[in-house]
Amino acid sequence: MTELAINSAAAMQKWGQALADTAKPHDLLLLKGDLGAGKTTMTQGLGRALGIKRPVKSPTFTIVREYREGKMPLFHMDFYRLEGDDLASIDLNEYLAEDGIVVIEWPQVIQDDLPENYLGLVLKRVDDSWDSTKRVVQLDPHGPRAGEWAKEAQARYTELMAE
Q: In the chain, how many H helices and how many E strands?
């Protein structure tokens, strides 16, 4: 697992963009983090980079599929509030068959059904201050493609921050 320090909301959105810029079809991103860790901010940056027209929020259950020429669709699923609900038993493979990135937040319900080749992403606040923008991103790649994605995303993030 590697760590990356992110010290502003703008930087968090750029990290989301870096993930999108380096993603390939069928990539799977597991998104975890404590309350206020910046999951929504990062997902918004990722969504905008993929050409999604409206901001991506963190609803109870949302699948966003807005296509744009040359871009992949983004699937964002929040299972955290659905544990025990029928919707939580959704077939992940149905979505992985699409040419898109799948973003899953807190996937306890379907943990056993995940493929080996995924990129785990944990966002943490550095301190307990609600107005703090300091975050730590931890990347835990599973499989060769996820490892490649992690390296490419970090390199792309460095480029975006230098612009």
A: 4, 6
Sign of CA dihedral 100, 137, 91, 113: positive
Nearest residue to 32 via CA among 101, 105, 82: 105
- pLDDT of 146 > 90? The answer is yes
Cα–Cα distance between 43 and 113 in angstroms, integer? Answer: 23
Q: Which residues pair with 135 in a beta bridge?
A: 6, 125
pLDDT in tens, 30-88: 888 877 778 888 888 888 888 776 655 554 345 555 555 666 777 766 554 444 444 44
**Residues 108 and 133 sit within 8 Å (Cβ to Cβ):** no
Q: How far apart are CA 147 and CA 131, in angstroms?
A: 33
Q: Is the pLDDT of residue 127 over 90?
A: no
pTM, 2 dp: 0.82
DSSP 36: T
Locate tokens 């544990």: which residue? 83
Token pair for residue 162?
Answer: 């230098």
